[in-house]
Amino acid sequence: MQVTRQRTYAIEAAAIAAVAIAAAVVLRPHESQVAALTVIFALAGIGLNILVGYAGLVSLGHVVFFAIGGYGWARLSEIAPVPIAFLVPVLISLAVAAGIVVVTLRVAGYYFGITTLAIGLLSVVVVQNAVPLTGGHAGIAGIQQLGVPGFAGPDQVLVIVGIVLAIAYFLQSSLRESPLGTAMLATRFDLAASRSLGISITSIKFLAFMISAVPVTIAGAFLAQLVHYIGPDQFSLEASIKLIAIAIIGGRGWRWAPILGAVVVVTLPELLRPLAEYRLVFYGAALAFVAIFMPRGLSQLAVWVRERFGSHRRKAAI
Amino acid sequence: MSARLSVKDLTVRFGGVVAVDRLSLDVEPGLILGLIGPNGAGKSTVINAITAFVPSTTAQLVFEADGKATDLGGTTSRVRSRIGIIRTFQTPRLIPELTVAQNVAMGRISRDVRSRWFELFGGPALAGGARRRLAPAVEALAALGLEDVAEEDPSRLSLGEQRLVEIARASVSGARVLLLDEPFAGLSSAEQDRLAQEIAQLRVAGIAILLVEHHLEHVRSLADTVIAMDQGAEFLRGGAVDVLDSQSVRERYLGEVVA
Predict the structure, then answer these.
(1) Is residue A287, in this structure, part of any structural domain at all?
(2) A143 lies in a domain?
(3) What angle, rounded to 10 degrees, do the helices at A201-227 and A154-177 form?
(4) Is residue A310 part of a domain?
(5) What class is the B3-96+169-252 domain?
(6) What pTM was estimated for this model as a whole?
(7) How distant, in Å, are the alpha carbons of A61, A168, A182 from that of A172?
(8) Is B133 in CB contact (< 8 Å) with chain A?
């Protein structure tokens, strides 16, 4: 049973990478741009899916890791080899995440969300004022992309992020089967049972927060690459809400939530460009709809389809 | 392996209400201590206090194992659980979105998180390891006749089955002291038989068991010693048969008027 599940995840991950590469081949540049943006947000969504869906923590401050990844790449890719430009921001994010958890350790539930909201807003202020490092309001332009032979422009970002997303997807799904992932789910659903099982709720929260920061940081680096620019407007409250919305609309904890959530939250609004000014209304309406009618997000549709048409062999969406 | 839990003068106050009043008890290895009493007598509160789910005062709360005594006064639920004091809940507390087998394996979770953390990286080679990790859980389910539902969502099980899953979880946990809170409630008679068998086996394995239960026939057949409580205080203690057949228990607990 476990073996086949792992195999399923590996096959699905390979399919994700294949679709991304095929899309890079087939799509026209401006379509690739939207596709790459979607994949970048799906990658970040994996972090939020682990945080919100596995551990049940809501963070409105994860843009801070987005920013660390973006600015880190912007500055380091000029002076250091590629792996360093990814790795150093990830390490910085882990340190910042550890700091945030230590500060918010005793803050539970909604209050945790509010505290992280403050952290997200603070990070924007820091970005705006640390001019030598971030370029302040003007941001940093002319950021270079990681090259892929045979591809150019947004296509090469799409190919690389597609592969990174596939790996992250496999790790995310494997985490859920591992002792650590099941312990996270226990703390999300039942604190009393968790305590009675000897789970250290604090360390599980700590680990979930740390792990969730990693894909968001890497996604931030790719976002900077895709648009060749990075500035404070990319890390507004809207970006934080977008990240959370991906996990919730997709279906907290479901392994496809980051990808399907990103399609709804990123691709659809891009296709509805003329209505761009109403994007926040769209997120609000979509979140309200999900909260009222589909508390388990799009995963509920999957359950419905399976129960309607599929085998009755197994269980919930996961 | 064998461990004993010694509690002296356990008192729990909820505001002005004394829910448990200076209760002393010893849970001994290989023996079952029954705790009976009408609803509201404070039986579950005793379990909640021993597992630090509610604050309490005790003159002594000592866990003795391998010739070493540990004072548990002031420790958290987590510490008490990790030392081997494992409880079940009146309402089964299974984790949704995990399979039944994964729920049973939660009994060992605090150890697995540390010793098998690398499973989070997945991979086919490690998947075999995950299966080995879940094997004791599946075995424990089989012992309770539940091997067919190992891969099910726990919410699809009957209340009785959920309770049995909780027992399976406790049995793989390496519990040395087991606190069972009305395990027979809501079980079919077949399920009750399986559970009684399982509890008897845990007793033979040397686990010290505290059994809070309303089904007195099971207390009679399983327990060695019984404490009868009313309004937070003990009013009778002794051999199971003696206590259950005593006039005071029948009057107070069963509401029977004995001529």
Answers:
(1) no
(2) yes
(3) 170
(4) no
(5) alpha beta
(6) 0.89
(7) 21, 6, 12
(8) yes
